[in-house]
Specification:
mainly alpha, Amino acid/polyamine transporter I, two-stranded antiparallel ribbon, 4 strands, 2% strand, disordered N terminus
Length: 477
């Protein structure tokens, strides 16, 4: 494949002016890979697994919660897309934060995201293992975790096109499943499905009305929906390894709006229209409940297959994203230098390091599920909001700089700048404040704040030491 280094060569990254890495990575991702990664990245396991709790809390108004959080995500993706199209980099928002705010910001945003992805790999491996153990009783969960971790670590150690192919087919299956679900649901809502009478507006207005639990329930649903939007950042990381990263990022960002509207808001609207929000089966699994309601045979098992695909896709994408983020940080002098070696266009040492951390987190879930593993989960509970905050601040600074110095790089532009950027920052702040209202999310916020402060302090110390070394070198020169 053109653009891919010979597999017998090795290279180490070096720092370039401006704070980005000189990439020794290959460019083996095709446009079809990026397009499907962008599509499938929207359909995360959180949509299938976590939406039931949001519906149980907010009732039919969960549609508003998903629409509001989806709007925030769209704005964040637009800002990220603007910067990534102007400066494609495997470190994505970490590189943009370093350029705009300073090395400490790139260090903090990058490493907190790395920890988030590695912990997510552990959670997804455990979820996939639970499904497999249910299908094959008597097989231990740890065995399935080991199988999945080995498989996706192995695939990520090979050329990046292997990651692209895996994600292409995983995403295709997820997209097909969600589109089929929405089509069947709409047919049922319209009363055109044999044996399933149209519910009309009964489920939207009955059982306590559209807001059965008031604004409090809506707030809980909003918090549940915000964290369901996982995986969207991967496409801007992957774009750096494509043949045309600017075009890839631009296309992915420009289609983000309809993807979020259709896949998330559309499917949730179908669920709360077809079946009562307070039905016990909704909490257990809203998508399976709908399929069972419209007469799909073995609905629960069908959804288990879809959820398994979503979990495996997320594992693969998160090992990839974590390894590239770690590589970018190392390349910019923000991590252990021994991890920076690249072989065959793949940063194999950061792949191993990321998978090893994820597997260690799995072991923690077996050894200390209620203490150490719970602390780890809490530390990354609000990490995505920290990342979104860095993206918004970085875009405010970067946009001004680009308009002055290189306006031709503004291939993707943030809408109504700077008003919507400030609105995005306000949205992130509002979600953080809402997290203070609930006991569980308040604990997550406290742990994430502790991790963020620790990383920021470490980043500032490193930045000052680097500045002192540079000044000393300048004096000696």
């Amino acid at each position: 494949m053109s653009g891919t280094p010979d597999l017998t060569t090795t290279a180490s990254p070096r720092r370039e002016a401006g704070g980005t890495e000189h990439s020794a990575l290959s460019h083996g991702l095709k446009q079809r890979h990026l397009s499907m990664i962008a599509l499938g990245g929207v359909i995360g396991a959180g949509l299938f697994v976590g939406s039931g709790a949001g519906i149980a809390a907010a009732g039919p108004s969960i549609v508003l919660a998903y629409a509001a959080s989806g709007l925030l995500v769209m704005l964040v993706m637009r800002m990220l897309g603007e910067m990534s199209a102007a400066h494609p980099a495997s470190g994505s928002f970490s590189v943009h934060a370093e350029r705009a705010i300073g090395p400490w910001a790139g260090f903090t945003a990058g490493w907190i995201f790395w920890v988030l992805l590695c912990v997510a790999v552990a959670v997804e491996a455990l979820g996939a293992a639970t499904i497999m153990a249910g299908w094959l009783p008597g097989t231990p969960q740890w065995l399935w975790v080991a199988v999945f971790m080995a498989a996706f670590t192995g695939s990520n150690l090979l050329a990046v096109r292997n990651f692209g192919e895996y994600e292409f087919w995983f995403a295709a299956l997820k997209v097909a499943a969600i589109v089929l679900f929405i089509v069947l649901g709409l047919v049922a809502v319209l009363g055109l499905l044999p044996g399933t009478p149209s519910p009309g507006l009964d489920n939207l207005t009955g059982q306590g009305g559209f807001l059965p639990n008031g604004t409090e329930g809506l707030v809980v649903g909003l918090l549940a929906s915000v964290f369901a939007y996982g995986g969207l950042e991967t496409v801007t990381i992957a774009a750096a390894e494509s043949r045309d990263p600017v075009r890839g990022v631009a296309r992915a960002v420009r289609t983000a709006m309809w993807r979020i509207a259709v896949f998330y808001v559309g499917s949730i609207a179908v669920i709360v229209t077809l079946i009562p929000w307070d039905d016990e089966s909704v909490l257990a699994g809203p998508y399976a409940a709908v399929l069972d309601h419209i007469g799909v045979p073995a609905a629960a098992e069908v959804m288990n297959v879809v959820v398994l695909v979503a979990l495996l896709s997320a594992m693969n994408a998160n090992i990839y994203g974590a390894s590239r983020m770690a590589y970018s940080l190392v390349a910019r002098g923000e991590g252990p230098a021994f991890l920076g070696r690249v072989s065959g266009g793949v940063p194999r040492r950061t792949v191993f390091a990321s998978a090893a951390f994820g597997f260690f987190a799995v072991l923690l879930s077996f050894w200390w599920p209620d203490t150490v593993f719970a602390w780890l989960l809490n530390m990354v509970g609000a990490a995505v909001l920290v990342v979104w905050g860095f993206i918004a601040v970085s875009q405010l600074i970067t946009r001004r700089r680009l308009e002055r110095e290189a306006p031709e790089r503004l291939v993707v532009r943030m809408w109504l700048f700077p008003a919507l950027t400030w609105l995005s920052l306000a949205g992130v702040a509002a979600v953080l404040l809402l997290m203070l209202r609930e006991g569980d999310t308040r604990t997550q916020l406290a742990f994430t704040a502790g991790l963020t402060l620790a990383l920021s302090a470490a980043g500032l110390v490193r930045q000052r030491r680097a500045a002192a070394r540079a000044a000393e070198t300048a004096r000696e020169g």
